[in-house]
Amino acid sequence: MTNQGLTIKDVSFAYAGTPVLHDVSATFAKGRLTAICGPNGCGKSTLLNIAAAQLTPSRGAVHLDGQPLAQIPPKSRAKQIAMLPQSPHVPSELKVRDLVGLGRYAHRTALSGLSVDDHDAIDAALKSTKLDAYAHRPIAALSGGQKQRAWISMTLAQSAPWVLLDEPTNHLDVTHAVETIELLWDLVQAENRTVVVVLHDLNLMARFADDVILMDQGRIIAQNTFAEAVTEKRLSAIYKRSISFGHLNNRERPFIVVD
Amino acid sequence: MILRLSAPLIFLGFLAILATGIGSSWMPLDRVVAALFGQGTRTDEIIIWTLRMPRVLLAMLAGAALALAGLLLQHVVRNPIASPSVLGLVDGAAVGVVLFLMLFSNEANALVVSVHWLPLAATLGALSFAALVALVAARDLMQPARLILYGIAAAALAKALVTVLIVLGPVYRAGQSLIWLAGSVHAAHWDDVAILTCVLVVLTPVLAAMARPLDQLLLDDQSAGATGLALNYTKVAVLGLSVILTAAAVSFAGGLAFVGLLAPHIARALVGLRMGALLIVTPAVGAAIVLGADIFARTMAAPLELPTGAITALVGAPYFFWLLIKEVRRD
């Protein structure tokens, strides 16, 4: 069973000589929502990019179901793993549906148009992000929250069982942030996809994450189910502030307060 | 969409017939069409087929090649101001051409090797200067205005080299070399047309296969890579294609400036961002620009001829200014 899923083993990485990750090992369990949390510059984004083969580690290896990720051709890999980077960009005159269609690249051949499968996947992705009504508008006409959903929609259209997202709730108001994570949670529940998400908002993590990876200064501090990994002591240590849990009567999970 | 796709092509057809009619003696369009289909008088057919057709076709082919090169460059560096001339490829190719003429011609003003090698020399020249710009700009790709500055510097260097080579080289080649400085199609031969056609025919299936990866380059690098695009391979292939296209055009028509900048902008205004349509419309627009410029070049100061490249620059350079101002203000 050890070679199932997406595993990162003894990975180190440096940007232009500055080490960012030190001998990191992690396993993203299938069919779960894993949140990666930690202070700015702790290596969360780098870890996510390495897991999606968008960065090549200087040491160590990533495996997908036992196969070295580096050896999987880009299109085959993209059918397995989709990733939404932190600050994606596209010309804003592009229509929403055309953007979402770009997520189908790995499924298409060089010359043919969009297949029935492609159209279905695009429609389903637009629907689950509640953008069906905006399909034919240019990106420029969307609000911040809608723009973010359009990008998530493109990532979903890739129809990959693994969905990796780098701070998808950035720049979103509370309502849209919660709705975004609910959407990801639905992917896990209803479509049995595996979601790995870098989150800054500890309360979103506390409410929705099945598993949590806590990182600090290029190392993984804890990696387990939410209840096992996340403690007041650990959070206080990595964020260098006193952090405590609060409880609401009707909620199983705590909420998190930074003192 | 069909109308927007076909309108530039139909316009180009009309322009081509018009351009064939214009010359030292005006030939009415019905006689042009008749001669084209072998129904004209013997004189008309000689004028059309040996004098005017090669020129018209060369103008169209060179314009199409430069326009495609510009389209590819603008997409791969994601910079609307990029173009073969702005990034030094055109002048780099001219260095290759002038060096080739210097090295491989004899006292009698004839080439000692086949003219078929000329595009290769131009390609090597363009490639060297592309590599120079890429090397210097590698860190600043995210800042469009900087990349353009490096390109302009490289182009200036190439221009200076061409001037020095012409002055130092044999006098009898100077006149011919000057053509490449300004860009002209007035000395067009069927040979030139044939070679350029071959290059474009060979590249057409390659370009068609690149349409989808090019669409993917609308996304930023990270997103494009995550959707399964082989990023480095695609970028090298696209840059290589634009170098070859530029070099092929410059080999036979010289430094036609700003065609590669203008044509993709006009084409995008007509058909939007999708590569499938752009790969058809952009070359048509480029062909029309050079053909139109050549009509002006021949008629404005007749019987004197102006360099076609000077006309394209007169239109293109102010537009380039405007784009640059827009980009710098945005930074």
Descriptive account of the structure:
The complex is a heterodimer of chains A (259) and B (331). With 259 residues, chain A is α/β, with parallel strands linked by helices. In chain A, 33% of the residues lie in helices and 27% in strands. Chain A contains 9 helices and 12 strands. Chain A has helices at 44-51, 74-80, 96-102, 116-128, 144-157, 174-191, 202-208, 226-229, 232-239, and strands at 6-15, 18-28, 33-37, 59-64, 67-68, 81-84, 162-166, 194-198, 211-216, 219-225, 243-246, 255-258. The mean pLDDT of chain B is 86. Chain B starts with a helix and ends with a helix. Chain B contains 13 helices and no strands. Chain B has helices at residues 2-21, 29-36, 42-76, 89-103, 118-137, 144-168, 171-182, 190-216, 221-226, 231-253, 259-271, 275-299, 308-330. In chain B, α5 (118-137) crosses α6 and α8 runs antiparallel to α10 (231-253). Chain B has 331 residues and is an all-alpha fold. The chains are: A alpha/beta (259), B mainly alpha (331). At the A-B interface, α2, β6 and α5 of A face α8 and α9 of B.
Low-confidence stretches of chain B: none
Q: Fraction of residues of chain A in helices? A: 25-40%
Radius of gyration of chain B: 20 Å
Spatial strand arrangement across the major sheet of chain A? 6-7-8-3-9-10
Number of helices, counting only DSSP H or I runs of 4 residues or more of chain B = 13
What is the CATH superfamily of chain B?
Answer: ABC transporter involved in vitamin B12 uptake, BtuC
Q: Beta-strand percentage of chain A?
A: 25-35%
Largest interface: A-B, 33 and 20 residues
Tell me about the largest β-sheet of chain A. Answer: 6 strands, mixed
Q: Which second-level CATH architecture of chain B applies? A: Orthogonal Bundle
CATH homologous superfamily grouping of the domain at 6-87 and 160-258 in chain A: P-loop containing nucleotide triphosphate hydrolases
Strand content of chain B: under 5%
Quaternary structure state of the chains depicted: heterodimer
Give the total of beta strands of chain A.
Answer: 12
Question: Helical segment tally of chain A?
Answer: 9
CATH architecture of the domain at 6-87 and 160-258 in chain A: 3-Layer(aba) Sandwich
C-alpha geometry of chain A:
globular
What is the fold named in CATH at topology level of chain B?
ABC transporter involved in vitamin B12 uptake, BtuC
N-to-C span of chain B: 34 Å
CATH class of the domain at 6-87 and 160-258 in chain A: Alpha Beta
Pfam families (chain B): FecCD (PF01032)
Protein name (chain B): Iron complex transport system permease protein
Organism (chain B): Yoonia tamlensis
Family (chain B): Belongs to the binding-protein-dependent transport system permease family. FecCD subfamily.
